[in-house]
Amino acid sequence: MLDVRRLRLLRELAHRGTIAAVADALSYTPSAVSQQLSALEREAGVPLLERTGRRVALTPAAAALVAHTDAVLARLEQAAAELDAVRGGPAGPLRIGAFPSAVQALLPGVLARLAAEHPALEPRVAELDPAAATDRLRAGELDVALLHRYDFAPAPAASGVQTEAVLTETLYAAAPADAPFPPDRGGNADDLRRWRDAGWILATPGTLCHTMTVRACEAAGFTPKARHSVDDFAAVLRLVAVGQGVALVPELAVAEGTSANVALTALPLRRHTEVAYRRGAGGHPAVRAFTTALAASAPAALRPAAADAGLPGEG
């Protein structure tokens, strides 16, 4: 019989690439991970890992086993969800991961609704970049997470995770209102080339927001000249207002209003927000309560059309 916990380690190795990374993510020691994977090889009766020095690679048998592991873990999540539904309504801790602008603009309404409708539920929010959220979901450190992806920075596919569309925002170029940035020679007001010579306020390298801005500018034919590195959009807009640079910001960041010193230009670019959870866990009472409250709290103008929302799918 194959041990499910060991199968989970093998799947994480397939995703993360090294035993050290698996150990770090799941709070094991590298030697413990190696021992568990060796035990799994004995259970399987075939080699699962090819070792070259300190590195390991999955054999074809291991790759096939990983594909089955996703389905096995999803059925276990579904079984756990059904058992919790039998026990009663949403209750106990619900660990939520969300990016900063969602924490500010979406979660207060969601948490207020949950407190009113499900007082036994205990939401616990952790602010984090979406790039880290799927790993923490799979590792069991989060129950749900708010993710985003951009037209120029799609999120990488993540095995074992399902997503549902929440809202879609327009991206804006935010520039000092008194800055001399004329339309480009073609007269297109939304062409990023207007700001090719400006200083730019970028997010931290490695985040989707940073990748999106750089790729959008490169698609317009230039590389943005980074002046500041700031992740909080409210702070970004304040810096723009005092002439410290140009930035790309999503609609939620400007929904509360901006300084008169900031000129906003709508761009043909979008940010898409999704709620994610482990595959099979969508029917868990606490997860379903959260997704229902989120759908009700999202600004109506930004919700995806029913035809576009589709069914929950793997991220």
Automatic annotation (TrEMBL):
Pfam family, one: LysR_substrate
Keyword terms of this UniProt record: DNA-binding, Transcription, Transcription regulation
Domain HTH lysR-type: 2-59
Entry keyword Transcription regulation: yes
InterPro entries in the cross-refs: LysR_HTH_N, LysR_subst-bd, WH-like_DNA-bd_sf, WH_DNA-bd_sf
Keyword DNA-binding belongs to the record: yes
Family: Belongs to the LysR transcriptional regulatory family.
Designated name of the protein: LysR family transcriptional regulator
Source organism (scientific name): Yinghuangia aomiensis
